[in-house]
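FAQ
Q: What does a multi-component entry look like?
A: The components come first, one per line:
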Amino acid sequence: MNDLSTVGLQLIDLLAAVSLLLAFGLLIQRRLTALIDFYALQSLVLVIVTSLVGWLTGQRHLYLSAALTMVLKVLLIPILLYRLVRRLRLETSHDTLVKLPATLLLGLLLVIFAFDVARPIAQLSTAIASGTLGIALAGILVGFLMMISRSRAISQVIAFLAMENGVFLAATAVTHGMPMVVELGIAVDVLIGVLILGVFLFHLQDAADSLEAGGPASPTARLERSGPETPKPRKARTQTP
Amino acid sequence: MNALATLLIAPLVGALALAILGERPHARVLNIAASACAAGAALALALEVFDSEPILAAGETFHVDALSALMLLVTTFVTLTTAVHSADYLRIEVARGRFSVGQQRIYHALFQLIAFALCLALSANSLGIMWVAMEAATLATILVVSLDRSQAALAAAWKYFILCGVGILQALFGTVLLYMAAERVIGPDEGALLWTHLAAIRTRLDPQIITLAFALLFVGYGTKMGLVPLHGWLPDAHAEGPTPVTAVLSGLLLNVALYALLRCKVLADGALQTPVAGHLMIGFGLLGVVLAACLLGRQRDLRKLLAWSSIEHMGMLSIAFGLGGAAATFAGLLHLLGHALVKSGLYFSAAQAIQWAGTGQMAGIRGLMSARPVLAWSLLLGTLAILGLPPFSLFPSEFMTISIMIQKLPWAAALLIMALILAFASVLLRVRDMIFGNRVQAAVAASEPLRTAATAIPALLHLALALCLGLVMPVTLQRWLQQASAVIAG
Amino acid sequence: MASGLAGQMLAILAALALAPILSGWVAQCRAWLQSRSAPPLWQPWLVLHKLFLREVVLAQGASPLFSAVPFLVFACMVTACAIIPTLSTDLPLSVVADAVALVGVLALARVLLSLAAMDIGTAFGSLGARRDMLVGFLAEPALLMVLFTAALGAHSTALASMVDVLAHRELAILPSLAFAGVAFTMVSVAENGRIPVDNPTTHLELTMIHEALILEYSGPHLALIEWAASLKLFAYSCIGIALFFPWGLAANDSPLALLFALPILVAKLALGGAVLAVAESVSAKMRIFRVPEYLAIAFVLAVIGVLVHILLGS
Amino acid sequence: MDAIPLAALARWPLLEAMLLAALGWICLGLIGGLQRSPGHAARWVYPIGALLAAGVAFLALLALVAPPLAPHTFSFTHGMAGFVMHFRLDALSALFVALLGLSATGVSLFATGYFSTGDAPSGRRICAQYHLFLASMLAVLLADDTVTFLLAWELMSIASFLLVMTDHQKRATRRAGYLYLLIAHAGALAILASLILLQAGTPDPSFGAMRANAPLPERSSIVFLLGLIGFGAKAGLLPLHAWLPEAHPAAPSPASALMSAVMLKTAAYGLLRLTYDLLQVQLWWWGALMLALGLVSALAGVLFAAIQTDMKRLLAWSSIENMGLIFSGLGLAVLFSSHGMQPMAALALTAAFCHALAHALFKSLLFLSTGAVLHATGERNLGRLGGLIRAMPWVAWLTLVGALASAALPPSAGFVAEWLLLQSLLFNPGLPDPFLNLLLPVAAAIVVLASALAGYTMVKFFGITFLGQMRDNPTRPCHEAGHWERAGLIWLASGCLMAGLVPGTLIQLMDPAVHQLAGSSLGSQIGAKGWLLIPVDIEQSSYAPLVLLLGIAAACVLTWLILRRLMRRGLRRSAPWNCGYGFTSARMQDSAEGFGQPIRQIFESMFGIRRSLPSPFDRSPHYRVSVEDRIWRGGYLPIARTVGRLSQTLERLQPVRTSACLLLSFMAMLTIVAWAVL
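Then the predicted structure of the entire assembly, as tokens:
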């Protein structure tokens, strides 16, 4: 390999590290809008990594993949999410279940764990950026942790998307990208997933309005919590003639 | 070849057509017709595949071997009967004003979409496409579960979405690792995700990567399958949404997840040469059976009860396949067939009972034997069948599983048997109170004139098939099962 | 065989004839002991005669069972007496029923009588039936265990062989038989409705057992039952004699031996009856719920007898 | 019979014919289940069923008379899920099949009349279930591999469960049915485990393979214990008896009769098959355990029977007693076999078989007469009945036959069994273990005590139901049983009498089965003459019930003849004397509780008695006393409570919120990855 590719490989590792950094950013950030920004940034890093790998390995379909990611994850999904946040009037709301230092500490442990798990694989790997696997895994775990530590649906979705970014990072950096069909399929699925999420959030709001009209001051705040503890018997359904 | 095309195109076209025409009364017929086409195609495909070579189609995109043919057959058949059942179900729901026209359209389209996704997952050669199809099926079912937009339904669907989403993401990561391992052996062409290629080189895959990959795949597909610590979404999701879809969810979707896991297990077994995968499956399967057995007794909602029973049976299946070997795999496949038939049949019965009583709470369903004898019998026999009593086919499969387990892991087998007894006690107690006892006035008396004789047919048909499978299994089917188990057990 | 038959017939006739006299003898002894003037020895025969000539007064609604039972009970008792070696051990009928069957026949009579007592539907009848069965359910096992003690020694439950073996061995102190003897005495007192378990002469509702059973019988029916009762006493006495004082029984069936055996039997019975009378006179009637305890003691003693036999091998 | 026809007989396809009969029963059930008017159909469906049962009994007797050199076998290749279904008819199965056939003939005849009334839906249901029940019991006895056996076994449980549930409107019935099926299923799983362990690694579940390779000695004890749990649960041995007194009373009488008379025997059959045929070794403590359990069950069963007030509950508890006695016989046989004392084992087995047959006949007779009483009066509470002998003499007299047999009184069938059991308990040449030697007489004492108490119970049963005056409502309408019902009762009663009177012939018939198990043939000697029983030696003991009966009858007739001449004064009817009390009322008779009261008082410590005494100031004083099973309170309820608490805890630990679920998944994932990779 020439110098250029060595630099490229180091760059990929660096970008992967940035991605993990952004994942930590997601983990500690409380404001929803900032979360969306961080997600878009992480996606952007993914775009760069993808095109870099495409350039290094000469696989054309990776450019397509990068473009797809750019359109979908850097632009479309963040925009959708922004609109959602605005529609639901959540711009300034905060949410965390676990105290920040504890979350950070846990995140750190997870990173160690991920590196340890990935180490033997990284050692034998001949792929272009073998160290990335551990970073990607760490990103996924941190995303998972974030998901657990948030109670708001929309933050959970962002965490989910961040995890997905981690998987993609692994897919592109560790292997040479998945087959195109698969990537397309995944992209479509993600898109649909986010659309569903949108539908969902509105439905949750609808349900809140119809069920708790005239109820507490901020019905959304409660209903935005992902899982109401005990689903009530569906009175509305059974009593309709 | 043509059969395969029909199999995939029929539900897809059906989905499109129903998305447009879904609110018409004929839509139900169309729904049935599309499912029937798929079922016919699956049968033709199965006849083609069994006793001959697996089919590779569209380059290497599609691959149907004995295992997938069998699964396709079950899937399309249960889809068909569910379509028949749901026609009746919808008729009553619409008549009662619980189902709007728009909902009906969405329901029909999604139903066919789910069928398509399942067929795709089962016939895809690429593990990646399989993953995509699984995810698509999940997303479609999420929409159906939340169809009635009650708060509980939305909450359940949301939980389903998040948990299964995370789960399946891990499966994706596992798939990526699998790809990575394969790529190191056969290079970065597109073949590295194709099952046919992977299976061929499975002994040369790097064990360390495969270990991690299988662990992630296990967690991922295990979540979809409802293995125990990952099962959080399952009872809620199964308790919401239109009941016919719950039948598909429980009878088919779980199976397809298991199918995906089995494909991965074959690779893992090949690469690792140690029974790690099997041990994982046995351990978590046992955990599932025990926990489900303990919690079955605490359920108050009929569909949740059945959902927990599904968790129990997924545990059983996991144990059976985890034990490995031809006999246990055969038992597992038989159990899978039996569970798919009986459980979906039970959901059909449950749907009728819930419609009759106007509530899904078991406390509100009483004295079916006096009020609706046919329904009572189908529910009772279904319950006995799902509890593993002869002469239904779950009995021989549980028998084989337990017998192999006793030989290999006697103490675990003792635990399993205790759990089975406990599960029996819990389920029987609940079902007894629904079926027997004094007749109560149906909450919704209006349902009576809407009832037709055909309502009970799908449930009874499933029971009859399970009976047939249990009592006198045709030699052909037995051979098919053996071939399918040969795919898994080698 | 023919000679055996003769002996058998003689034994039955002797039982039929002697049984009421034995009852009379016990009554006589008791009267003497209580310083009363005694009825004649054949007083029971006179009573029987009187009763046989009376008409039968049958309660309304009595079922055929009620009328049939006196005959059945009587027949059972006769059969029982035929099985027990009273005069000789060479009895053709002894192959028909052994000790267990003997107890069974006695139990059959008891059950039938209890059923008959319940037939009319009076308060006393069912009360008597209940009490009689209460006595029986413990007395029968105790009796059987007593018989088993002897049977184990003789390696036979056939009464004739048992007695044969017991009679023809050298005199030895048998601890097991001591237990069995005490148990047997207690049981036979209970079974025959004697004080302290029952008082054959009382009609006090709080205490009566046997009399409550037969309250509704009259005339020949009553006579049969009374006769059967005395046969039962006779049978028990003969069992006791056969088990514990078996010497003097005819081993074969020669007329001489039989002739020799009869006076010995009468003597032994006279002695036994006197002992019974003494025992009855010195004890007081028990409360009805003490009876099970009393019988339980008998039962346990009998079981201990068996155990002692096995433990000591004798 | 001379040798040639017998040899020809042995080649007849007896087994196939029996299986055809089972199929016939299933078809009859289907036909009856689909009839529009089941009452009408009952008039021909059940008699055909009875005919089939008689045929089956006949075939089984043929198989016993002409024991073939090799057992009949038959296999059905397309069996359950690809298993080959094996069937086999050897002497042991033939014996129990005969028992089934004989009993079922009578029960089916009775059922013809019994089920020809009643409402249509339940009539249809009962018809199907009843015949399925018969067929599955037959299949249990003929099955020759684990799968077929368990299939038949569970079908038997299901069919009888459904029969128990016939009267499901009652809460007690639902409870009974549930408890029954639960214990039955748990038992079946124990049997399954036992048989699988016996399979010892071979994939072949046929009994033939198990016979071929004996299991390891350390395994066989586990196999036996599991089998004992499984079969003991079906037999109602303590402490697994809880279902029996609930379930038997709940079913319609013919079903109770079959359950009690035949189904319980399949447990004895199964345990024999397991211990003697499949395990091939017997350890002494197995026998001792069986003996102990049997004796405890016998005693507890009869004590509880004595204090019951419901006719069928009383009979159900009495069934526990009888099963206990049968199991003591079996245990004794195992004990003897383990010490190589084959002739004694044969004697004990003969006793157990005799008891099984006798019980099958008299208990079905008694249950059926309960049914007749229930039909006639609508009542089965002893405390409200009485005097039925006047309205229904046929039933009463036939019941008396059964009651005497149940009380083990000579010359009935019950006595023969008890007699043989005592013989085998008393006359063993001495076991090597002195401690056991000491215990055997105690066992004999318990057997005797149980039999005597059975007499008490039967006096109560018969006396209170049929004798005296109607307690509750003197004008209660009641009628004699119909022709079919009477026919069924007569069949069973005559069976009882025959079994009691010619036990020698009976024992000769049992001989092949005894020989097959114990390896020693006593039967030809025991029953050398049909009328005389000689177990070992004529000097030792003998019993001739026929002569005994003739003797009693002769004495009776003679007395009567003589007295008829003496009694010139004739007969006069008058009011009962009643010790001179003028006023009598039916309510002054002993009630069922009153009759059992002494037993309750004497054995108070064995029962869980709860009394509520009225205070002196009560306006309407009520004295209530209820007797509970201590094992239920001390064994079953704590288990149920523990399990309930466990599941409650687990439920509380279940994550509800999405985050909690996620956390759980996360932990699981980390664990799995760590376990797999590190």
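Q: Is there any commentary attached?
A: Sometimes. For this entry: Residues 151-186 of chain B form the longest helix (36 residues).
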